[in-house]
Design a protein that fits this description.
Elements lengths: L7 E5 L3 H12 L3 E5 L3 H20 L5 H10 E3 L11 E4 L5 H12 L7 E4 L6 H5 L8 E5 L9 E6 L5 H13 L3 E5 L7 H4 L1 H12 L5 H10 L7 H8 L1 H14 L10 H8 L14 E2 L2 E2 L4
Parallel strand pairs: 1-2, 1-4, 2-3, 4-5, 5-6, 7-8
Antiparallel strand pairs: 6-7, 9-10
Helix pairs in contact: 1-2, 2-3
The chain binds 1,4-dihydronicotinamide adenine dinucleotide.
1,4-dihydronicotinamide adenine dinucleotide binds next to helix 1, helix 4 and helix 11.
Length: 295
């Protein structure tokens, strides 16, 4: 195994995405420090990663020694200041510009000046998050997809002031983690969440207009068009507390362009706490992570 481009990596936010990035970074040989404002989220991530590595060992995809090494590289951080020695910190917290900006302002005062800071934002402007930082040249977008270990593409996004070396290093690290880096411009939704707008918003319009129900749309798009997940399965996987703000953010950043208009259907479901697979209650109901109704 080659020396990781970033030997010590911090993950802030250890939900679905932070946990996935932590997994592949540890597998690539990096020491991974996990921080979350909810300490139970860190414990949950550690337990889930341990179980994940055991499963990979059972399938013969990791040796028992590799599992032990990965577990040893995972270090819970009690406070943000514990990320001081990180060469790279990746943020995967709530999709809100103000919260992300204040996190990076704090992190900049903690890490070494040479450290790279990166956001896993799905839709916010990398340039806007970096605005106000003392070292915007050390900051970039690093956008992974869910579930991270299986979705092999990562968008590397340079903001207006990002040093091109930073993106090159992030791309090199992505390759070490077994992923395929793609350079994307700093535009709302980058490549995937821009191109993917039509998939979700049009499907919601079809439901809103009473043309078909959500399960029929999922089934047809999978069986007849060949998508691996239907739009409503994808909403459930991403979770509406992530995907609805992403829809709003892209719509507003494109000056309220009608084709990006979010749906009242997802707004209402989010308000009602019907979020998705992670709380067992989405377009589909889930028990132990399994949908109770086939699309
Ligand atoms: P999640 O809800 O599963 O996890 C977020 C975690 O961040 C939670 O554990 C929460 O306690 C923690 N957190 C919130 N505010 C914090 C703060 N200020 N400091 C430290 N920890 C904090 O969310 P998920 O799905 O992992 O998404 C996180 C980010 O990744 C969002 O920006 C989202 O847009 C992006 N993303 C999500 C994808 C998805 O499919 N869910 C795909 C690609 C990107």
């Amino acid at each position: 195994m080659s020396t990781p481009e970033f030997p010590t990596v911090g993950l802030v936010g250890t939900g679905a995405m932070g946990r996935g990035i932590a997994q592949i970074a540890a597998q690539a040989g990096a020491v991974v420090r996990l921080f979350d404002t909810q300490p139970e989220a860190i414990a949950k991530a550690q337990a889930a990663l341990g179980a994940q590595w055991d499963k990979l060992a059972e399938k013969g995809k990791l040796t028992a020694e590799a599992v032990t090494a990965c577990r040893a590289r995972l270090k819970p951080a009690a406070q943000l200041a514990d990320l001081a020695d990180c060469d790279l910190v990746v943020e995967a917290i709530v999709e809100r510009l103000d919260v992300k900006k204040s996190l990076f302002a704090e992190l900049e005062g903690i890490v070494q000046p040479t450290a790279v800071l990166a956001t896993n934002t799905s839709s916010l402007s990398v340039t806007a998050i970096a605005a106000g930082l003392k070292r915007p040249q050390q900051f970039a977008g690093y956008h992974f997809f869910n579930p991270v270990p299986l979705m092999k593409v990562v968008e590397c996004i340079a903001g207006l002031k990002t040093d091109p070396t930073v993106c090159r290093r992030l791309a090199a690290f992505a390759r070490q983690m077994g992923h395929t880096p793609v350079q994307a411009g700093d535009t709302p939704g980058f490549i995937v969440n821009h191109a993917g707008r039509g998939y979700g918003t049009e499907a919601l319009r079809i439901v809103g207009e009473g043309v078909a129900d959500f399960a029929t749309i999922d089934r047809i798009l999978k069986d007849q068009v060949g998508f691996r997940l239907g739009p409503f399965e994808l909403f459930d996987l991403t979770a509406l507390d992530v995907s609805h703000p992403v829809m709003e953010s892209i719509y507003h950043q494109y000056y309220e362009e009608p084709r990006y208009r979010p749906s009242v259907i997802t707004a209402q479901r989010l308000a009602g706490g019907v979020v998705g697979k992670k709380n067992g209650d989405g377009f589909y109901a889930y028990v132990d992570g399994k949908a109770q109704m086939a699309p």
